[in-house]
Amino acid sequence: MLSNSSASRNRRKGPRRYLKLKIVLSGSDALGESFTESTETRVVTMDGGSFVTSRRLRIGSTVRISTPDGKFNAPAAVRNSRHDAPSSTYTCGFSFEEEVHGWVLR
Fold first, then answer.
1. What confidence tens digit (pLDDT) does each residue in 59-86 have?
2. How far apart are the first and last CA of the chain?
3. pTM for the whole thing?
């Protein structure tokens, strides 16, 4: 049985959708190297989602998420990261650091 605090942490703020949306990810990786990478989301929510990257990112670091056409652009905090050894990629959860306009679930 989950404790009240565990249940609270596991509650979602809103709906999530499994959606592969092309994005451009930029920031600094765990080694401090600046990068820009074209990738895609796996899940989107009103406040963020998850993406796949070839870079190891620090939890709590800020990245910039934008659409390839540049119509959407916002800073986001990396909330979690899971390494997939066979593909040498990381799936990272993120949440926007400010209120955003033009995100897919707004």
1. 999 999 999 999 999 999 999 999 999 9
2. 34
3. 0.85
Please name every residue paired with 50 in a beta bridge, in sequence order, or none if there are none: 43, 93
Per the structure, the complete domain to which residue 49 belongs is given by: 16-96
Cβ count within 10 A of residue 57: 22
pLDDT class for 106, splitting at 50, 70, 90?
Answer: low
* Number of domains making up the chain: 1
Does 75 map to a domain?
yes
* Dist. CA 100–CA 87, nearest whole Å: 32
CA contacts within 13 A on the Cβ side of 35: 18
Position 24 in a domain: yes
